[in-house]
Amino acid sequence: MSLSSDPRLRQALEESRRQTRDAVRDLRALTAQTQAEQREFRKEQERSGADRATDARRGALGPAMQRVQERIDRRQTTWNDVVSGADTHPSAVAVRRDIEQGLAEFRRLADQDPEVIEAQIAARAAAERLRGASGPGAR
User: pTM of the prediction?
Assistant: First the structure.
């Protein structure tokens, strides 16, 4: 009996192919959604960047941000240097600390957000299906 005439092997092969298609479809959808969200995030970042700089200049974001923005305006530093730690000025250290605290709070809140949790579960399931579809016996 050849492999192609064994109904169990044909069924296993068809199931493996279906799982692979499903996993690839899920990953493509997740990638498309992530890319769309990234584009929207970049647009919002560009729109709000100018507003943040204005707020920082007038002191609305605190004295450390005001000082950092003044130093950026004078070309004494860059946001990259502030964020990376290359800028060791006390105002940059304070802003970095504030950013780190904000990110920690964001992570804590995201870990409690049902939509984030659902997206994480879906991504894990898609990755597991992909691993299963490409694992031993899937050929």
Answer: 0.52
Closest by CA position to 73, among listed 93, 88, 57, 94:
57
* Tokens at 51, concatenated: 């507003």
Q: Alpha-carbon distance 47 to 137, whole Å? A: 51
Instruction: List per-block mean pLDDT (blocks of 10 residues) for the chain, which spans 139 residues.
Output: 74 92 92 92 83 93 96 97 97 96 90 87 87 63
Closest CA to 118 of 41, 36, 33, 44: 33
Which DSSP letter does residue 76 get? Answer: S
> What are the sequence ranges of the domains in the chain?
3-134
Neighbouring residues of 82: CB distance < 8 A, sequence distance ≥ 6: 68, 72, 92, 95, 96
Residues in the chain: 139
Residue 58's pLDDT is 95
Beta-carbon contacts of 126 under 8 Å, excluding residues fewer than 6 positions away, are 23, 26, 27, 30
Contact 16, 119 (CB under 8 A): no
